[in-house]
Specification:
Protein name: Thioredoxin domain-containing protein
Helix content: 40-55%
Distance between the termini: 69 Å
Pfam family, one: Thioredox_DsbH
Number of strands: 4
Structural class: alpha+beta
CATH architecture: 3-Layer(aba) Sandwich
CATH topology: Glutaredoxin
Strand order of the largest sheet: 2-1-3-4
Largest sheet: 4 strands, mixed
CATH class: Alpha Beta
Number of helices: 7
Radius of gyration: 19 Å
Length: 187
């Protein structure tokens, strides 16, 4: 065979055997609490610098015990804006620092948990009566899961501003956010 063929083959093997898993900003080599999940969507977020939890008792218990607000972020693998928000916000070290320090962050695949997606989509529709609900569906909730804010894609700057504003209100007076609750009670 032609020696050029072997050189090209060797070069191709070297190139394709390298991966870009370390290319994310703030890449979490160890992985977060999603690392052992089976959902492809959740696994896409397993190496974000955000310390994501799946929707399980561990995360809900931690939120209640720590008295931290929760971020519930719901999406699915083929959602364009879910991937944009993951790239712009959830892979950013400034955003992840705030999310990790001040919130318990939960990531949900809506195709695995349509029941939870339905609850927070209903909350979004009640809170935002003019519409504007879709995916990614992001909720900021009290430690018991009651939504105080629900919306969709936000730019990194909008997301940071929202997180800092809500956390500031909560730090000053945790009971103040209860006034934000709509008529929908989530249990």
């Amino acid at each position: 065979m032609n020696p050029k063929f072997y050189i090209i083959l060797l070069f191709s093997i070297i190139i394709f055997s390298c991966n870009n898993k370390g290319s994310h900003i703030g890449n979490n080599q160890k992985g977060n609490h999603l690392i052992n999940e089976t959902s492809p969507y959740l696994l896409e977020h397993a190496h974000n610098p955000v310390d994501w939890y799946p929707w399980k008792d561990e995360a809900l218990k931690k939120a209640k015990e720590s008295r931290k607000l929760m971020i519930v972020s719901i999406g699915y693998s083929s959602c364009h804006w879910c991937h944009v928000m993951e790239r712009e916000s959830f892979s950013d070290t400034t955003v992840s620092r705030i999310m990790n320090n001040d919130f318990i962050s939960i990531k949900i695949d809506r195709e695995e948990r349509p029941d939870i997606d339905n609850v927070y989509m209903t909350a979004c529709q009640v809170i935002n009566q003019n519409g504007g609900c879709g995916w990614p569906l992001n909720a900021i909730t009290l430690p018991d899961g009651q939504a105080v804010w629900v919306g969709t894609y936000l730019t990194k700057d909008e997301w940071l501003k929202l997180l800092t504003n809500i956390q500031s209100v909560y730090a000053e007076d945790p009971n103040e956010l209860e006034k934000w609750l709509g008529p929908l009670i989530i249990n």
